[in-house]
Amino acid sequence: MPVDMASVSGTTVCVTGAGGFIASWIVKLLLERGYTVRGTVRNPDDPKNTHLRELEGAKERLILCKADLLDFQSLKEAINGCDGVFHTASPVTDDPEQMVEPAVNGTKNVIIAAAEAKVRRVVFTSSIGAVYMDPNRGPDVVVDESCWSDLEFCKNTKNWYCYGKAVAEHAAWEVAKEKEVDLVVVNPVLVLGPLLQPTINASIIHILKYLTGSAKTYANSVQAYVHVRDVALAHILVFETPSASGRYLCAESVLHRGDVVEILAKFFPEYPIPTKCSDEKNPRKTPYKFSNQKLKDLGLEFTSVKQCLYDTVKSLQEKGHLQIPTPQEDSIKIQS
């Protein structure tokens, strides 16, 4: 979807947690579009943020600000003078103490700071975790933006990541209403694709374990996937489209783990990809139905899950996180 470059030049936006997997891509695409970006990070001098400084346009239009989600003053300084805020920073953990409090209070702080700075719109990165954890949903119900995770169910199953995401999103809507902030939320599923940051994030480990031989079997479970570039673009589209409102489910397709390993084995047969399911007693889990129509209506064209998986592995190889096995005949040639 073409954007008028003249309209964004001189526009300053803030991206929280700028060094993260999704956030790095948001920063990249914003810079490509001509925005000036203030990225909040814990320590601007940390080498793990070098990849941001190397992005096209970063020298001219990227400012890394030292900020902490629980330090209101630092957020205020980063957000003041911005036209918009992309709040992506969030802990990814299943430890309730590390997850819930920073996720909720950090989100409230960002929205209050945005209200005080009179920003035009806040785009908040929530998660499918805030949407689909509901034991009472029937198999034929289409998961869409109207669905919310059942907090008691998340608590009882000790799924603190989903619990934290759901509670943080509820808090975001509450504070935004109270402070009259224009809030739009993106709910991505499991995000794959090329890494810009040097470290491996949680969603990528999900694929890496099938290639290294550390996973001998695959689980009898389903997962929805989406390409990181599509997630970043979704954030920008909802920011740039005045009529955008509410939540946006960001998913390309739902696959059984068996389908995932099959696709990986077709592309990369040289790796020890598991062929056996860890649960052969129970029937194979069926993918749930979902709708991503809201984002398609904004002009987002989703990248296929096969491409997501291919790009993820290629990126892991390029970044040195995954060794490329040497075929036998090549090694013989080299020796001779």
Automatic annotation (TrEMBL):
One Pfam family, short name: Epimerase
One Gene Ontology term from the biological process aspect of the record: lignin biosynthetic process
Keywords of this entry: NADP, Oxidoreductase
NAD-dependent epimerase/dehydratase domain sequence ranges: 13-245
Keyword NADP: yes
GO molecular-function terms, A-Z: cinnamoyl-CoA reductase activity; oxidoreductase activity, acting on the CH-OH group of donors, NAD or NADP as acceptor
Domain of life according to the entry: Eukaryota
Region forming the signal peptide: none
This protein's name: Cinnamoyl-CoA reductase 1
UniProt source species: Ziziphus jujuba (Chinese jujube)
